Amino acid sequence: MEALVVRKLGDPTLPPGGEESPFAAVSGDRPIPELSSPTSVRVRVAATSLNFATFLQVQGKYQERPPLPFVPGSDYAGVVDAVGPGVRRLRPGDRVCSLASVGSFAEFIVADEKALYVVPDGCDLVAAGALPVAFGTSHLALAHRAQLKAGQVLLVLGAAGGVGVSAVQIGKVCGAIVIAVARGVEKLQYLKSIGADHVIDSSKENVIESAKSFLKASGLKGVDVLYDPVGGKLTQDSLKLLNWGAHILLIGFASGDVPVIRANIALIKAHLAFADLRDRKAVGKVMIVMGSSAKSRL
User: Fold this and answer.
1) So what's the pLDDT on residue 292?
2) pLDDT tens digit string along 61-97?
3) pLDDT classification of 270: cutoffs 50, 70, 90
4) What is the C-alpha to C-alpha distance for residues 75 and 128, in angstroms, rounded to an integer?
5) What is the DSSP string of the chain?
6) Is the pTM above the cut of 0.85?
7) What Rg do the C-alpha atoms of the chain give, in angstroms?
8) pLDDT in tens, 214-239
9) CA distances from 102 to 13, 56, 75, 253, 279 (A)
10) What are the phi and psi torsion angles at 234 (to 5°)?
């Protein structure tokens, strides 16, 4: 089968096969993976997404470093090719999608039956190939960590990227008022088309002032959930927009700059809430979610 193989760590933008490229030349001589257990399923990959984590992994900058050589790639969609004798839910020909730590940049991949999700009718495999990482991350962050509710204000930085778009869409399904930040007219138009209530071009506008103007015109006090896959100075500036008890969802640092969040921000927000709700015994908190799996709270 054909597969993209990382032979050494390096620049993932270089074409395969070159002397400096981290990728070996693509060929069809890689063996098709065998079923590894009774509940294993082999999938013929139809589509796989390119995530920022994969970009980092090829450079050796991701927290998980697979041994060389390896086939990169995480979420994917395809058609079931073969199943083990213990598989009960799936059969050859079924359309599925899933998430792997590595391995989806290949014609075939093997996964356990319980790790596979049936792609519903009406959803094409290309779209399904981008579902698990982006939408899984955003659903966990917004629905479970932040517990986003109807009427709350959600601010999405980097809103035109994969996780950003999914955050905007899930936010609207939850009934939130969504402020989306991106660069360029076309991206802003797309974000409006999928439901964003207010869009901000960070390459031309002052993000904080634009958001403040929208909040004031809408009769809103501030942002209840900050969704941030970007990092950098914009993260620090956006903290000025937060309501008391707001949730800060740190998804990633695509800017390359890990922001420093000053503890006095949490202190001030908690103090304001205590003053406003002095008749309540509960004290709120600012939740910080690191990526899609952390549980730390400040």
Assistant:
1) 39
2) 998 899 999 999 999 999 999 999 999 999 999 999 9
3) low
4) 9
5) --B--B-S---TTSPTTSTT-SBPPP-S-SPPPPP-STTEEEEEEEEE---HHHHHHHHT-SS--PPSSB----EEEEEEEEE-TT--S--TT-EEEEE-SS--SBSEEEEEGGG-EEPPTT--HHHHTTIIIIIHHHHIIIIIIS---TT-EEEETTTTSHHHHHHHHHHHHTT-EEEEEESSHHHHHHHHHTT-SEEEETTTS-HHHHHHHHHHHTT---EEEEEESS-SHHHHHHGGGEEEEEEEEE---TTS-PPP--HHHHHHHHHHHHHHTTT-S-----EEEETTT---B-
6) no
7) 22
8) 999 999 999 999 999 998 999 889 98
9) 18, 13, 9, 21, 52
10) -65, -35
Report residue 117 as tokens: 């999700």
| Paired tokens of 33 | 């993976």
Q: List the structure tokens of 61.
A: 């900058």
